[in-house]
Design goal:
Two copies of one chain form a homodimer. Chain A is mainly alpha-helical. Chain A has helices at about 10-15, 20-30, 50-60, 65-80, 85-130, and strands spanning about 35-40, 45. The first copy, chain A, is about 70% helix and about 5% strand. At the A-B interface, helix 3 and helix 5 of A face helix 3 and helix 5 of B. Chain B binds a DNA duplex through helix 2.
DNA sequence: ACTTGACCTGGAGCCGACTCCAGTTCGTAG
DNA sequence: CTACGAACTGGAGTCGGCTCCAGGTCAAGT
């Protein structure tokens, strides 16, 4: 169905892990590098490039980039050559935020690991005592 | 004011970075290891232990633990000795989630760094060309 | 021809985690 | 004594990011 070059929204949902709802939502929000093509009956036909683009957007989302900023980036790409410095700005800014996020997360991890260690020691010591050592 | 052993909600907000709103919200949600003491006039008086506890909760929140799970953990602590294994379970589960989160974030970071590199190269090559090299 | 399941649209609903509002009270400084 | 900022309560509002609903269309299989 659809020939081997086009994908239905359901197939894209499978391949990306997004729901069909989310896919339509992203489209409405202007998060597709190119207007998605429609087949007869008005059904969306996605290309492999669309899937690749979505996968990158998913990475940006997962790392906390808000939808409006992804839209700005998408618009720059849509406008074509000449605005690479702006795209770079967006990416670098986001990179910095992700870096900070990772630092924070590492701090949290350190605390959690410390607590887990303490509780493990304690629980083990109780267990040992129960066995009569 | 309040003597040197008690802190007002505003002072706790300052020390933790939470808003006074958030502090009342957390209390309502059962995220305080011990019932917060009230002064004359019904005003909350926090202790340093409350602040320490809140700081830990903030770490849990920052790393994505939902409020209801923090509440469960808090309740266990409130119940006192004997449930350390359950506390440990919650912490270990969360630790694992944070680990996965960090892996994901690192993947995102790798992609972003790759793209930043490519755009930097490109932008630099354009700049160099403009200078006539 | 009919059924079934995937798809369409616009708009409403939901969830988590706050955030803010209205109306009131408290307590210290001038 | 008054004025001010900070605190109090319960409940409503906000925001982001989906998720779902109603009501309808389409297309492939039997």
């Amino acid at each position: 169905m659809l020939g081997r070059m086009g994908l239905s929204i359901g197939q894209v949902a499978e391949r990306t892990g997004l729901s069909v709802h989310a896919l339509r939502f992203y489209e409405k929000e202007g998060i597709l590098a190119h207007q998605v093509h429609r087949g007869p009956g008005g059904r969306r036909i996605y290309t492999q490039q669309d899937v690749d683009w979505l996968r990158m957007c998913i990475m940006l989302r997962m790392s906390g980039m808000p939808v409006p900023e992804i839209r700005r980036y998408t618009e720059l790409v849509r406008q074509g050559d000449g605005n690479e410095p702006q795209r770079l700005d967006i990416l670098k800014e986001h990179q910095e935020r992700v870096r900070q996020q990772m630092v924070q997360l590492q701090e949290c991890m350190d605390l959690i690991t410390y607590k887990v260690g303490k509780y493990e020691d304690y629980v083990n010591s109780i267990a040992a005592r129960a066995v009569g050592q």
